[in-house]
Amino acid sequence: MILGRTATISRSKIQSITCLSKLSYRSIGNAAVPKFPFSRPYGVEPPIEYAQLRVNTPVSKVELWDGSHVWLVTKHKDVCDVLTDERLSKIRTRPGFPEMNAGGKAAAKNRPTFVDMDPPDHGRQRGMVAPTFTPEIAEEMRPLIQKTVDEMLDIMVQKGCKEPVDLVPNFSLPVPSRMIYSILGIPMEDLEYLTTCNAIRTNGSATASQASNASNDLLQYLGKVTDKKITNPSNDLISRLVVEQLRPGHLTREDVVQIAFLMLVAGNATMVNMINLGVVTLLQHPKQLNEFKKDPSLAKGLVEELSRFHTASAMATRRVATVDIMLNGQLIKAGEGIIASNQSANRDEDVFVHPDSFDIHRPTGPQLGFGYGVHRCVAESLARAEMEIALTSLFQRLPNLKLAIPFSEIKYTCPTADVGITELPIVW
Ligand code: HEM
C-alpha cells in the first residue's frame, strides 16, 4: 500500500481509515489519550489521525514517549495562533516543554541558541545570523548553488548509469552540506569528515550514543574552527560572529560554537529529505514532471507545493504555556506543553482545496512548511533556492532519471519520525 502509483490518497480512503481509527479509540475507552507521534500509514502520507482530529477535537491531549500529556493542535488557524502567541515559550528548560525523546531531553540542558529562546533574547541572537540568509543574499548565492549542483552531477554522471547510484550520498546530502559549510567558512578539505559526522547524526540507522558522539565530534571540530577565526578572521559567518559579536562581548566563544552548530545541523536532514521527496513525488506524478522538464520556471511552484505537501520538519513547532490561555475554546494551563502541528495545518481542508492532492499549479497559499511567527525558518530563502536549483538541474541533466527499485521498496524514515527517504537508488 505504499504510494507506488500516486502520492494522492482519495478522500473516501481517508474517511474509511478515519472511521476505523475512531473505532479503535472507542475500544480503549473515552479517557484514553493516544500516543504521539502518530505513525505515517503510507510512506509519505501524514498520519491519518490528523484528519480526524481536525474535524472532532482540534485541540486534544496526546501522550509522549515519557508518559507526559501535552496538547496537540491540528487546525491551521490554531497552529498560527500558537506560533504567534508571546505567552507561549520555546525555552526547553521550562517544566512542561514537550520533548520528543530522551536525547532531546538531555540536549535541552545545553547552552541555548536562538532556536530555543523567547523574545527579546531570541530576536537579538537571530539578528546576528539573519543578515546572511535574507532573500537578497539567497538570490546572490544562486550561481554558487548552481556551480555546486553541477559539480555533484558531473561526478555522479562520470560514475555511469549502468549500476544504480544512490542519490543520497552522491547528490541530496552533499549539495546542501557544501552550501552551509561554505557559508560558515569551513575548510573544504574537511568536508568529507564533517559529512560523515553529520550523516551519522541524521541517517536514522545510528544508535543514540553514536549520534551523540558524532554531535560532540562536530562541536569539538567547530570549536577548533572558531579558534582559528578568532586569530585570523575571514569573510564568512563564523568570522562575522567573532568580529561583530564575540569581540565586543555580545557572545561568548561557546555561543559562537553553538550557533555554528545550529546552522550546520538545523536544516541539513530536512534539506536532504526534501530533495529526495521532490524526486520521488515528481516521478509519482509523471504529467507534472513532464511539464516541469519542459518549463523549469515551474520550480518555484513545485518547491512551494513540496513544502506544503510533505512538511518535512513537522516536530519543531513546540511550545509551553507560561500562563493560562484559551485556544479554540480549550483551556491550556500554565506549564502545559503544546505541539502545533504544521503538518496537519498544511492539509487543512478549510485552507487548501483538495489538500491531499499534489499540485504544482496550486495558487500560493499560507503553507506552514517553514513554520510561522518569529521562529519561522531563518534560512527559508536559501532552502527554497537550493531545492529549486537541485531539482531543476537534476531533471534537465538527466531527463530519463528513474528509480532503480519499485516505489514500494523505497526506504522511508521510521513512520513516527519526520518524513524522509534514507536511500534512493536511481538510474538514468
Ligand atoms: C526545506 C528545508 C527546511 C525546512 C522545511 C525547514 C523548516 C523549519 C521550520 C518548520 C522551522 C520553525 C521551527 C519553530 O517554529 O520552532 C525552522 C526554523 C529554523 N530553521 Fe529551517 N528548514 C529548512 C532548512 C533550513 C536550513 C537549510 C537551515 C540552515 C542553513 C535552517 C535553519 C533554521 C533555523 C536556525 C531555525 C530556527 C529559527 C528560529 O528559531 O528563529 N533551516 N525551519
From TrEMBL:
The keyword Iron-sulfur is annotated on this UniProt entry: no
CDD domains for this protein: CYP105-like
Annotated GO MF terms: heme binding; iron ion binding; monooxygenase activity; oxidoreductase activity, acting on paired donors, with incorporation or reduction of molecular oxygen
Stored SUPFAM superfamilies: Cytochrome P450
InterPro entries: Cyt_P450, Cyt_P450_B, Cyt_P450_CS, Cyt_P450_sf
Metal-binding keyword on record: yes
Keywords: Heme, Iron, Metal-binding, Monooxygenase, Oxidoreductase
Family statement drawn from the similarity comment of this UniProt entry: Belongs to the cytochrome P450 family.
Protein name: Cytochrome P450 55A2
Source organism of this protein record: Collybia nuda
Lineage of the species this protein comes from: Eukaryota, Fungi, Dikarya, Basidiomycota, Agaricomycotina
